[in-house]
Write a structure and sequence with these properties.
The chain is mainly beta and 415 residues long. It has helices at residues 2-18, 42-46, and strands at 35-36, 74-88, 93-111, 116-124, 126-136, 144-165, 169-190, 198-216, 229-241, 244-254, 260-269, 273-282, 286-296, 301-302, 305-306, 312-322, 337-351, 354-370, 373-385, 393-407.
Length: 415
């Protein structure tokens, strides 16, 4: 039964989370709210997070809620990943690794004829997790070790639906709730033991609501007048976040008796993200997706103040998926779905007038466990930044694992 399967998945997730390594992600994540997640599943990562104009009958996509319109079964999905990071400057390199839980979604069709479906879930929106150590030589105070750490991020809980509207357009929308904790710690430890060490902790806890809205056009394949092109659609979505109420805590500690604590409330402004996509399907089995993302991080504000070293994000993604047509006589290998993708990104980070650009290649596949259940695998290799101008080059290698369960729930049968 699917309930028993879910129990095993939860046990596996607990094991993954409990064995996670402490440090990963870029040191640059100390700016803004950290690295941004475009999607959560192994399937979308394998296609470089393209596919916002694809109608999916057997998995849940979060970039554009209108994609849920084609769901044919109730679906429960989990995703978790292992990230490996090589961080390099002009003289040395270091390696970090981390395992994280990427999210959970639950969705079901209400009326396939009318394209009505409902979905909910909890997924990460951003992530901070870095550690930097600096040995400082100072003649006036003596040599000391400075350590900078950051951990946390923003998460999103959503519930939403989709429906067909006149002229076969498909619309979808969600109600989102955002919450998180951004925790920054800096410490100073002097080599001279006569000087007391000190550490400073700054925490931001943002909460608030938002929405994601999307639309997908009807099938426009007839404009090509070709029997090989079986589907052609455009998609558009926007992710809007209200000004987040943010609790702020600052703590200064030392080995002396005096500690100082400051507590206050402020506002955090996270810029709107827009996504435009196109999907082309050949012979009902070959899917090609092209997507463009834009998010103006120069509009990010905390306490009404812009943050330095942030730039407007622009990302282009191209993805491919081979989805074999189902038949009763298919063997195991013939049921495997294949995916690949490539992306080029002008990231939200900018230093010394130089934007940190990122190029990524990805791939993956889905293994059938049963006719409606799959085990999904996605891999991605990315390079961001450079070693020039006293900057860091980051080489990311990620493995995403996903489990997707499908079953017939909430279906009314004729008596």
């Amino acid at each position: 039964m699917i309930v028993n399967k879910i129990k095993y998945v939860f046990l596996f997730i607990c094991l993954i989370v409990s064995t996670a390594v402490a440090q990963n992600t870029s040191t640059y994540t100390r700016y803004g709210i950290g690295d941004i997640f475009y999607g959560y599943s192994a399937r979308t990562m394998a296609m470089s997070f393209s596919g916002s104009a694809m109608l999916n009958s057997d998995y849940v996509e979060i970039m554009n809620p209108a994609t849920w319109s084609a769901l044919s079964r109730t679906r429960i999905e989990f995703s978790f990943s292992y990230d490996d990071l090589k961080l390099s400057n002009s003289t040395e390199s270091k390696y970090y690794g981390d395992a994280i839980f990427r999210g959970f979604t639950f969705a079901f069709p209400v009326s396939q004829d009318n394209g009505i479906a409902v979905a909910l879930g909890i997924v990460p929106y951003s992530r901070i997790n870095y550690e930097s150590v600096q040995n400082v030589q100072d003649e006036s105070t003596g040599n000391y070790i400075a350590k900078y750490e950051g951990v946390g991020g923003l998460s999103r809980i959503f519930i939403g639906g989709t429906s067909k509207v006149p002229y076969d357009f498909i619309v979808g929308a969600t109600l989102d709730y955002y919450f998180g904790n951004l925790n920054y710690t800096s410490s100073v430890e002097f080599i001279n033991s006569a000087i007391y060490p000190a550490d400073y902790n700054l925490q931001f806890a943002p909460t608030g609501f938002g929405t994601t809205v999307g639309i997908i056009t009807p099938n426009l394949s007839n404009v090509f007048n070709s029997s090989s092109i079986t589907n052609f659609r455009f998609g558009l979505s926007g992710n809007f976040i209200s000004n987040l109420d943010t609790d702020t805590t600052f703590v200064s500690r030392s080995k002396t008796i005096l500690d100082s604590i400051y507590y206050g409330k402020t506002k955090m402004v996270v810029p709107t993200r827009f996504n435009v996509g196109v999907n082309l399907t050949l012979e009902n089995v070959y899917n090609f997706a092209l997507d463009y993302f834009y998010q103006p991080w120069t509009d990010f504000r905390l306490s009404g103040v812009n943050q330095l070293n942030l730039s407007d994000m622009n990302k282009f993604s191209l993805g491919f998926e081979y989805r074999p047509a189902r038949s009763i006589s298919m063997n195991f290998l013939e049921q495997i779905m294949l995916r690949a993708g490539v992306s080029y990104e002008f990231s939200q980070y900018e230093f010394n007038g130089v934007n940190l650009r990122q190029i990524s290649v990805s791939g993956g596949f889905s293994i059938p466990v049963s006719p409606e259940n799959t085990f999904d695998i996605g891999v991605e290799y990315s390079i961001r930044g450079s070693k020039e101008n006293d900057l860091l080059q980051e080489n990311f290698f990620r493995i995403d694992l996903g489990i997707s369960f499908g079953d017939i729930w909430f279906t009314r049968y004729e008596k």
